[in-house]
Amino acid sequence: MVDELTAAELGAMGGKARAESLTAEERSEQARRAVQARWNAELPQATHAGRLRIAGREIICAVLDDGTRVLNQETFLTAIGRAAKAKAGTGSTRMNQVDELPPFLAAKNLKPFIYDDLRRSTSPVIYRTETGGRAFGYKADLLPEVCKVYIRADEAGQSNKGQAHIVAACRIIHDALSKVGIIALVDEATGYQYERLRDELQRILERYVSKELARYSRVFEQDFYEHIHRLKGWKYNPDSTKRSHAIARLTVDLTYDRIHPDLLKELKQVRKEKGKSFQKLHQWLTADPTGGHPRLKQHAEGVTALLSVAKNWLQFQDWIDRRYPKVNETRLLPFPEPEDEELATLDLQGK
Predict the structure, then answer these.
(1) Can you point out the beta strands (E) in the chain?
(2) What is the pTM of this model?
(3) Rounded Cα gap, residues 121 and 138, in angstroms
(4) Nearest Cα to 219, choosing from 282, 128, 149?
(5) Helix crossing, 222-232 with 313-323: angle to 10°?
(6) Do 212 and 94 form a contact (C-beta atoms < 8 A)?
(7) Contact present, 219 and 349 (Cβ < 8 Å)
(8) Is 74 within 8 Å of 191 (Cβ atoms)?
(9) Residue 195 in this model has a pLDDT that exceeds 60
């Protein structure tokens, strides 16, 4: 009789026997998991995931299969100074019943600063993680808008003492995001924008670019330019600090662009927003031991060492491309004369 049973029939008998051996609690858990699996299958799926750092705060983020960028709910809350878990009675996704706002925007003193579009964009996003689990989050572009609400309330004198730490966190985050958008940061952190280095924009914000103008300090020594002139066969005047556009362009290519392709652009943007056009760009680099100023100075010293021992420009060109390659690109030198007058504002000589 057993020999005549099919494999399917034997499997069914085995499954029935296993089911009968389970306790009531185990059967209930098994049913719950089956329902959850069917429900999760209908949720959007995270195709990319990562962690981004904004002003010392780490936020888990993801890009969903429909292109939505989301920030993990718990790390979203801790980033703005809130508790990671919602208070008892609120539930992880439950909104304020009257205003349909999440708990972090439900305070009465914040209401005058919440516009209708923001109110409609505060619904949590439920999605599947890369490993298949269920997660709660908010659309990434909600973060800077929430920061604006707290900042506006504080500037209007409407924030309270209990919100002081949230206001402080929101100011830090909002200031950081004024340099690079939240969507760009999520794409970098998750690898969604894979053609660029992971975390590179964040690294500029966190490590290299300062929010305050630093005291002047020399970066490029005289022999840096003396050796460039020697290898190029150009006449060099050691008594002059004026540099041609060709020298300016070479300096940018050999230093700023090889540290990161967006570093010069970022420095110009910071100076435009917070400084004056005559101020030296390298003064907007951070000065701490792992910051932008020491990094630029160290890099310039390394380039100078290669310049000093090279016999000709072609040899140096080969060495610099090997020792300090650009991100996804190594261009040939020399370059055509630039037309960018803004290069003249670079402190190339260090004076």
Answers:
(1) 46-54, 57-64, 69-72, 125-128, 134-139
(2) 0.45
(3) 9
(4) 282
(5) 130
(6) no
(7) no
(8) no
(9) no
